[in-house]
Amino acid sequence: MMRYQRLVHTIARRAGLDEAIAADVFQEVFARLLRHLDTLREPQRLQAWIVTTAKREALHQRARARREIALDEPPADRDDDATLAPQLVDPGPLPDELLDELQQLERLQRGVERLDERCRALIGALYRDDAPPAYEVIAVRLAMPVGSIGPTRARCLDRLRRLLLAG
Amino acid sequence: MKPLEHQTDAELLDSLRRARDELSDAPAQAIERAIALWPAPVPVSVEALADAAAAALRLVQAVLSFDSRAGGPLALGLRGAAPDTLHQLVFTAEGRDIDLRIEAGPAGYEIAGQLLGPDEPGNVLLAPEAGGEPLRVAIDEFGEFRFTPVDAGRYRLTLQTGGLAIELPVVEAGPRR
């Protein structure tokens, strides 16, 4: 669950759900996982199952919220045909390309978390701010010789790439 | 988005900034509520449980994240790159990765691996799935371990390190099916 919590929560929020409804989606995904665990024979499919389930549940909640908002509108403003007809779930906010990208970004973040402490600290210092601080500042912060920052940066990012390649 | 493995250093840092902005952790309360849904611990082998209890270790289950013999995303398009005699797997648990290689040799199989993560000493136990006395080897200073020769068959591996007993899903030393 800890491995997938970030993905599920992000998918729910990207669907435009507020924190409370996103929490409901979160619960539902893991409750459903518990119910279907016996049928999930291939561990390598687990992430795909979780992402698909999170997407469907988030879009379902989004459509539900829109129907409720529409029903709350004064009758004169409401198009009855639109609210009573079954709403096709519009995958608009969660296209497959976005879900693929979110999974890649999550995989990247998880990769950094698996690095040793020194690399985590250096990479963190380099990406935490949009404009990374000068190496002289990082050197003081991390108690490293300023001349070693460039080579260590390269080694750490290479290590990250190898971790990602290994899965 | 360019595959992560092919991104330059600058691109990786940019991607990390995007990850920082795009991804969000679930609130602690939501996580606790979800954990509370699970009524019983994940089933583990009796042997690993007894061993962990004896060593006062916390038992965790590793999850498969790469299989050179699987199709689809798990093989990362690398299927077929390894020779038929070599089966590569990667498992993940508690912020650690276990890189496992099962290889056929003239005298039997070799099950070897490396623990990637915090630098901690430990042992690895190898037991037949059907039960029996496990073999035990130490994890060396590079995080590596090796069992050789090993008969063809299905095995449970348990890594005891960092206060944890990390149990891997059953693996098979055998030819590609």
| Relative helix content of chain A | over 70%
Assembly type of the chains comes to heterodimer
Biggest beta sheet summary of chain B: 6 strands, mixed
What is the residue-averaged pLDDT of chain B?
83
Work out the strand percent of chain A: under 5%
Tell me the domain tally of chain B.
1
- Point out poorly predicted stretches of chain B: none
Give the N-terminus to C-terminus distance of chain A in angstroms: 18 Å
Fold and architecture overview:
The complex is a heterodimer of chains A (167) and B (177). Chain A is mainly α and 167 residues long. Helices cover 71% and strands 0% of the residues of chain A. Chain A contains eight helices and no strands. Chain A has helices at residues 5-14, 19-36, 46-72, 80-84, 96-113, 117-127, 135-142, 146-166. In chain A, helix 6 (117-127) packs across helix 8. With 177 residues, chain B is of the alpha+beta class. Chain B has a single domain (47-173), classed as Immunoglobulin-like, CATH 2.60.40. Helix content of chain B is 18%, strand content 40%. Chain B has three helices and eleven strands, in the order H-H-H-E-E-E-E-E-E-E-E-E-E-E. In chain B, strands 1, 6, 7, 9, 10 and 11 form a six-stranded mixed beta sheet that branches. The radius of gyration of chain B is 18 Å and the shape is globular. The two termini of chain B are 35 Å apart. In chain B, 32% of the residues are buried. At the A-B interface, helix 1, helix 2, helix 3, helix 5 and helix 6 of A face helix 1, helix 2, strand 2 and strand 4 of B.
